[in-house]
Design goal:
The chain is α+β, with helices and mostly antiparallel strands. It has helices at about 1-30, 40-45, and strands at about 50-55, 65-70, 75-80, 85-90, 95, 100-105, 110-120, 125-130. Keywords: Signal.
């Protein structure tokens, strides 16, 4: 019995490797020798570096700075929510070069979510920060 299971495990491992290698080979190019574009390659999609967004300082005291690099955003908007979901009124200041300053001086100490969104490109992502 032990030999039978060992043999089946070996066959499963070999079959898995064959499938894995055939998948990665087909991702590199089509059967006709053509190269598959980066948009169709699953591995390249997961490494997409568009819209790199940083928020600092964290924890914040007077303001937070939002830095957006490699942006595909066309109409960037911001929302600020308390940890319990209440929307806070903010007036972000565009500092140029993809940087925005958001005043938080008058808010209570606690955790907040800053939502960066763009309706045109359908981008929306929330970032948590601590206000001291």
């Amino acid at each position: 019995m032990r030999t039978l299971y060992g043999s089946m495990n070996t066959k499963l491992i070999i079959a898995s490797l064959v499938i894995l290698f055939s998948f990665s080979a087909s991702a590199q190019g089509g059967d006709d020798g053509s190269v598959v574009s980066a948009e169709n390659n699953f591995y390249n999609q997961s490494l997409n570096t568009n819209n790199k967004i940083e928020i600092y300082p964290n924890p914040a005291v007077d303001f937070i700075v939002v830095k957006i690099e490699n942006s595909t955003l066309e109409n960037t908007e911001f929302e600020l929510h308390s940890i319990i979901g209440n929307e806070m009124t903010i007036t972000p200041e565009d500092m140029g070069n993809g940087q925005y300053r958001v005043p938080v001086k008058d808010f209570a100490t606690g955790y907040y979510f800053l939502v960066v969104k763009d309706e045109v490109t359908r981008f929306k992502k929330a970032y948590r920060f601590l206000k001291n």
